[in-house]
Design a protein that fits this description.
Elements (H helix, E strand, L loop, with lengths): L21 E9 L5 E9 L10 E9 L5 E9 L4 E5 L2 E3 L6 H13 L4 E5 L22 E9 L19 E6 L3 H10 L3 E2 L1 H15 L3
Parallel strand pairs: 3-8, 5-10
Antiparallel strand pairs: 1-2, 3-4, 3-6, 4-5, 4-9, 7-8
């Protein structure tokens, strides 16, 4: 069984009263010239009370003798009807910090046990079909949490993901130094590239090219 075995069977309008994850909002605002305008957008229903974010993206780096590698996932996303190349990610639970959510989600989705090194500012842009959307369309936000995975840790020798019944995730890694070439190859093979993965790869490529 592969993530590529999934497919869309049909699409239809979603009624407001049956939507579990999102709701549609019509906002009236004034532009910089004082003209009144309207904007349509979606909002998540799942942000925990008291939290400033909806979820986390996880930059998980494996420490290997051959060089650092980034943990990635292949996961089918119905809105795009493609298998996406993504970093591990997930929603924040009530009472969790971004860092706690990142360590938990990494273990659940990949089996890896890691240690947080740093977190990004709150971000609003991305294209993952499940978690993030263009801020012109959705108010969803996230923090990117950097996690280091010690491969000498016995817990990382035999991985035991804890996937939910509706999760079908294939975990793999790419060397950081080869990220740009790696995702270009995956796109040619028919995979969709999550914006967070593409932006990270592009940043590494720019740094290498300009010797930053």
């Amino acid at each position: 069984m592969s993530a590529k075995d999934a497919k869309v069977l049909k699409t239809e309008p979603l009624k407001e009263e049956t939507a579990a994850w999102t709701k549609l909002i019509l906002t009236t605002y004034t532009d910089p010239l004082g003209k009144q305008r309207t904007s349509e957008h979606a909002e998540r229903r799942t942000r925990p009370k008291g939290s400033d974010i909806d979820g986390v993206g996880i930059v998980a780096i494996l420490e290997k003798p051959t060089g650092p590698e980034l943990v990635l996932q292949k996961q089918y996303r119905p809105p795009i009807d493609k298998v996406m190349i993504e970093v591990p990610a997930g929603l924040v639970d009530a009472g969790e910090s971004a860092e706690q959510a990142a360590v938990r989600e990494l273990k659940e989705e990949t089996g890896y046990v890691g240690v947080v090194s740093e977190s990004s500012p709150i971000m609003f842009n991305g294209t993952s079909a499940h978690l993030l959307s263009d801020p012109g369309f959705c108010n969803t936000n996230t923090r990117m949490v950097h996690v280091t995975v010690d491969m000498a840790n016995p817990a990382n020798q035999v991985l035991k993901p804890e996937l939910e019944e509706n999760e079908f995730i294939e975990v793999f890694t790419l060397p950081l130094k080869d990220m740009w070439k790696g995702i270009a190859k995956l796109e040619k093979e028919g995979y969709g590239i999550d914006a967070r993965v593409g932006t990270l790869a592009e940043g590494i490529e720019i740094a290498q090219r300009w010797k930053l």
